[in-house]
Design brief:
five-stranded mixed beta sheet; methyltransferase; alpha/beta; 650 residues; Alpha-Beta Plaits; MeTrfase_RsmB-F_NOP2_dom; transferase; 15 strands; RNA binding
Amino acid sequence: MNKGQKSTFNHSVKVPKLYKCAAKIAQDVAEGAGSIKQLVYEKTHFNTKALYALVATSFQKSNEIDLLLKRTKLLDIETRLDSWLAKILISELMWGKGQLPNSGAKPIQTILSYEQAFRAHLSDTFKDNNYTEDKHLTRGKPRYIRINTLINSMNEALELFQEEGWTLIHPSKENTYTSFLEQVENLEDNCFLRDFHVPELLVFPGGTEFYNHPGYKKGVIILQDKASCLPVHILSPPPGSVVLDMCAAPGMKTTQLAATLQDNGIVYAVERDPKRFEILKKMVEVSGATCVNAINEDVLQCNVPEFSNVEYITVDPSCSGSGMINRLEINKTPDNLRLQKLAGFQIKILRSALTRYPNAKKIVYSTCSLNPEENEDVVRQVLETNNQFKLIPAIYFVNNQWINYGSSDFSKIGQYTLYARPEVDLTNGFFVAVFERLEEGENNEFYNGRVLQYRKKIEQNENRKERKYRESYNTSNMIEDTDCIAANEINNKIIENPIKDKIGPEKEVSNEVAPDSRESIFDESTITEEVSIKKHKKKKHKDIGTDECVTFVPQSTVASKKSKKKKHKHLEEETQIEVAASTGDVCDEPERKKKKKNKNPTEDRLLEVSTNVEKRKKKKSKEESVEIVGINEKTEGKPRRKKKMVECVD
């Protein structure tokens, strides 16, 4: 039967929602849609703990379930039964509650009808020499319980479990990590022991259920795998410290940090996803921690001023989850493209942790992945371009007793980092690396300046390409260029028509007064009208008024001036000679002004262009009254005086 085969039963009684949700999540996980934890928390089911346990168990027992389905030929006989729903129901019946609800739903009735066959085949399996199974996978990994020391002390918790009938197993005489693992493997029912590395962690036999335990509901005990406890245990911030949890949800490490600080200090717990953020807040609330400041933002973009005081940082970014036991049989061959994307994000967030927080002293990077691309290679790439932190051997923080280290392909980086491996450490798969800030005079032995220079060159080239693209296609630049061209055209026209200047128009008109003063008046008005139309289209009402005043001068005034000039014709001739003689001096000044204007380049900045436009506006306001140079008819040889043109009255 295909994985995606859907059930076509017509149910008179529906299957409980818990099993239907679990079947859908199991199918999505198998098809690579996400991890069990991620998909479970995305569901709106009220009992996420039971949902997670059900799906996880179905994957842990996938070998046995497939064997039972094969031997009973269940899916071949019951062709309408959904394969994923069948696996979930078998998991619940054989390794979960041991029974299914007394329901009339057809799928449940079908599975119950095969119960005796399942148990018979399962019993024969262990006697069959042709079938071997890892002891750890058969029994399941141990159940780890972290005691919330914010509510109860370790001694109180130990007494509580002993009162319930549990027997505390003391360490062996060797008291080594290897001997501890042997004790865990041989742990009998109703027995528990304290962890070898993490003081507040207790170890119980695999399959022990605590979801209904009073201590779990009150927040006294927290169900947290040992591997997940290692980053905070290694970071070990002292009370009163300022700590940043960069990827905080669901809140296991956050509450562990608060307990390590003894609720004295600050823990900034940052989570981007809104749904996971709500889970984080609930977890913190149940734990009783008051020193946690939960922030629903992207840690790479949020700018909290208080972050400058951060001293200790945990970096536990999104990863492939290949170390989770419930995923070991799902994705045996990693997707290279997905790994590259994940590694890119992991490098980015770790580099941010090492560079953005000036007071950071110690940083722990961890993933629940067993892929070197997400672990040693990420550490290598970050250290090659950072000379502020150094890599510290993580074994220093686990009593100098550990078994699995990083890959030898990464030389010292592999020696300095740790792996928790399910088949050896009896935990989920995990990777841990520890960074400490360099002291004065110290160097990062993995720093490579050439790599940093190479990265900078790549960034510079990318910036250049981006700049060229913007220069080619940015509309704001096009508008700016258009304004410059228009402004320069205005400048050129103003230079060609010196009548715009205050001195220029007076002297130019004075040179043309001799032949006919009336003619000169209309010439000037024509020029003024042309300039005003070209330059000031937006202020037509003002320009038109000015032009009308210049053009329609009362004829009596013009006639009287003409008659006076005729009477003194001989004086005009002499005056013309004087004017002609003075023309050279007069013309020199406009030429100099032209040169000054010509000094302004056509590629002036927009700011300079706007300044010139403002100046021209001011000059325009001064030109509202046009002056014409006349000749004093009574006084011969006396200096010329200026007569203002009579403005028309509307």
